Amino acid sequence: MRVGIPRGLLFYRYFPLWESFFEGLGVEVVLSSPTTERTLQEGSRLLPGDLCLPIKIFFGHTIEIKEKVDFLFIPRYIRIEPETYMCPKLMGLPDMVRAVLPHLPPLIDLSFRCKAQVKESERSFYLEVGKVFTRNKDQVEGVYQKAKLREDRFRQILQMGFSFEEAIHLSRTELPPPNQKKIGMEGVGVIGRPYYLHDPFIRTSMVKEVEKRGYPLLTPECWSERGIKTDEKSLRKRIYWSFGKEMVETAIRLSESKTVQGIILLSSFGCGQDSFNVEMIRHLIKKRIPLLSLTFDEHLSQMSFSTRIEAFLELVQRKEAKR
Amino acid sequence: MKLTVPYLGLLHKAYKPVLEKIGVQMVLPPPPTKRTLDLGTKYSPEFACLPFKVTLGSMIEALELGADTIFMPGGWGPCRFGYFDVIQELILKELGYHFVMGSANNPDVLSDMIKMMQSISGLHFKTQLYRLFFFILLRLSFLDWVSRRYFHSKPYEANPGESDRIYKTAIEMIERSLSLKELVSAALKISSSFRKMKRTKSFTPIRVGIVGELFTVIEPSGNMEIDRILLKRGVEIYKSIWLSDYLNDRFHFNPFRRNQHRIAERYAHPFLRCHVGGESTESIGKTVLFARKGLDGVIHVFPFTCMPELVAQTILTKVQKVFDLPILTLIFDEHTASGGVEMRVEAFLDLLERRKKG
Known about the structure:
The complex is a heterodimer. By secondary structure, chain A is α/β, with parallel strands linked by helices.
């Protein structure tokens, strides 16, 4: 039995959990290869042009593996924490896949709708997924608990500043994670959705530019504690998008910490939610810290980013020198 | 207090006379024009959707005319509409305007809407507030009913311009009716004048459905007056969503109208198994319904970067194949020119005509 996981969107948040869950059930996990130019081309061929880049990339990955597997795992994530929503495009993802792609294997498209009891609703979701493969409830339960441990380990390693790939690799072993932190909490913060920040195709063009100049990168996952209430911070309404909330909270946290020198906001062309998130972040951090907002699309090239990032880092440096 | 509410289809005709009668001062900006959109675009985030920009422009124009209270319903959906009031308030305050932004915290809940009505009208008694609110909703549903009658009689009229005259007087009559009794008698008169209208026999017009995002479907400034273009060509229009239906699905004030969202949900289910916010379910469900009804084509309209409708657009590519139904997608933003829209619609109608002939 083989289950296919496209390397896109929520892969970049939940993969360690998914992988050890399926492997524990004795199911072989088939992953698509990392994103390249070709993935994007394959994906955008069938889709309306106005959809955002991550969705197109996701479809490219799905096309790559759909004929090699018995099941495709494309769950419908409606809310990943209580009282928030995912992007509508993620909520309709299995339906879009079904509408656009021919010759599909059966989809595992169970809905995940997080209720007030976060742990309980996640557990029951994975028990449902497990039912597809086995009737043995106790086995699924055990496998899920193990997978959950793996995910915790993965998060800890991410918070130390290791990259996504390194964290996946390191969390595979049962050994306790390496002790020393790779980075301190200083440098330039990059804020964006996990599927922008960890996708090598989107990432390389930008991250290298920053790291080349000796600034460590901080992603939202580097920050262990959450829990800034955005509505207490002068917004009239709490934010009802999961990733939007995460981005705004991280931005506030970064702007309040003394060690972070600048923030780079990464958003996709035509992203409906980010158009508002960027506006809110701009308002909430109130020029306390230099802010660069970058928008990428299909035609992203290293050159276009490097000029702007260079100029931004110079600004950061000059501000640092003044202090 | 000088209250203003951004335009949304015929909504202003429903609430304005009623609120003015009980002494609420209203400032209505001029109907949205190019200037409105330019103003809105100038101060909006780049990828905000057209409804956001148009309503922001309308707010600025109303504030220039002396309004000091803006009402903008909020929401908690996955769609961006729930944040309109928050972001617009940020932007307008940054521009230096002084005003109060009123919004219903949760517009799907009746008690919140009543609280909102209380803050607007200044009435104290709950019964009065409920009566006021439901009366406005009823007026709106009559206005929408008149529009529907108009769309279904205009292509058949024997004397050109007759239905336009009836429509115009009908809207005025409903606008003037300030009690339930007047409203019902006006409706009876309107109904009979539509019935008496002379019709051409043995003629089947092209029938086109308009589906898509609420604002774009019903507000002429959001869709480059697509209704007018279609009516001019003698097309019978079916719309996927009406504001009164949208509200009726939530507040159930009209016992004679079925829950349209539920109908759409049933037809959309084979293609979309979860409501993804906005009017995505209506767009897909009603397209399927229109295809079953034998309509000649469907026009899918939505603003650029609208998230739920992008999902619908992707799925409609499949619906199009399954039902062999031509679908024209029109995406509106501040750069859309009316000439371009007109040309594309006319080309689409030519295609439908040719398909129909043979």
